[in-house]
Amino acid sequence: MGKTAGIVGAGVMGRLLALELNEHGWDVTIFDRNGVEGRDSCSWTGAGMIAPYCELEAAERVITQLGVQSASRWPAIIKRLPTPVYYHSRGSLVVAHPRDRNELERLRRRVNENAPRPDIMSEINGKELGELEPDLSGRFLTGLYFPFEQHMDNRGLLHSMAEGLNQRGVSLVTEYSAETIAPNRIGRGSSDQSFDWVIDCRGMGAKHDMAELRGVRGELIYLHAPEVNLSRPVRLMHPRYSIYIVPRPDDIYVVGATAIESDDESGTIAVRSALELLSAAYTVHTGFAEGRMLEASVACRPAFPDNHPRIHTEDGLIRINGLYRHGFLISPALTDFVIGYMENGEIKKEAEKLFRHQTAVN
Ligand SMILES: Cc1cc2nc3c(=O)[nH]c(=O)nc-3n(C[C@H](O)[C@H](O)[C@H](O)COP(=O)(O)OP(=O)(O)OC[C@H]3O[C@@H](n4cnc5c(N)ncnc54)[C@H](O)[C@@H]3O)c2cc1C
What was the pLDDT predicted at 358? Predict the structure, then answer.
């Protein structure tokens, strides 16, 4: 009989793990309390940037390393999916207004210290910026260009992953709120199902089972802005609120994101947040003023105190969590580590600090 895996949580982590385990010959069932689109997951809100170097703005070297490893895996993962996903490898741009140039310099230093490869970042002047993004011509004097970074439509990815699971015969059980997530067992009410391995990918849903897991509220806005023409993510550095603008097809842009220490996912975007995000976007491109607000999306990023992911293990149960603001950036690397562990008990050297034995919370 084949090896069986039951996954709880069909965000980006759970879906990717299900697909890859299936690829490795496992018999997989994945459960989620959401519908198939995953609208209540953090992954539905995420902006879909694969930006291992830009993230050094706030993250540590370990995230960059996981991100670089994952970035090389995404093209093949996406190619195997049954429906096309908006995904581009056009790099990212980082800009700052003249008074905030120290912020640009701070990022430049952090990248040089933590990822010392000369080809991953170039300092560009206003003219070069305009050649990359004609709409930014004359708007900024300098910028940083990260040619290897990627971006994708996170929602399109979730959709295509669900189709891929379906096509491969992996059962995605939706509207299923798991109550028992235990070694070798997933259950609801009085009915349990048994698996060789249970993998908990519940994000914030695992809060009561994982010590120290906290939420960091993120808010972003979808805009339809036909007067803006940007082809790659643009980050605006600012001492208090840095923003990013990430293109989607059909003149749609995602403007994000706040980072508020809070587990509160309720309600829509706060007025203060909307004012900050929209004003900053307007200073990047005045064409946003003529745009239409389509949606404000809110979710809590699951995070541990060091903002690094963790893989908790005990016999028959693995919990993967704390992907914080990097779920799309790092999930391929985490998937590889977890499958290596499930198949032969191997923990790769570079993953040693992420693995730990589960300590139950009372
Ligand atoms: C504003 C914002 C912008 C972001 N931008 C980026 C970005 O550009 N790049 C990037 O890499 N990351 C980004 N992130 C972070 C990324 O979205 C998260 O790290 C990632 O989505 C976490 O994925 P996950 O699968 O662990 O959790 P989730 O996506 O939250 O999935 C967990 C799933 O578990 C299900 N679940 C919970 N409890 C149960 C239960 N009892 N039974 C059944 N199902 C259950 C939930 O319904 C949910 O579908 C962003 C996040 C936010 C909020």
Answer: 60
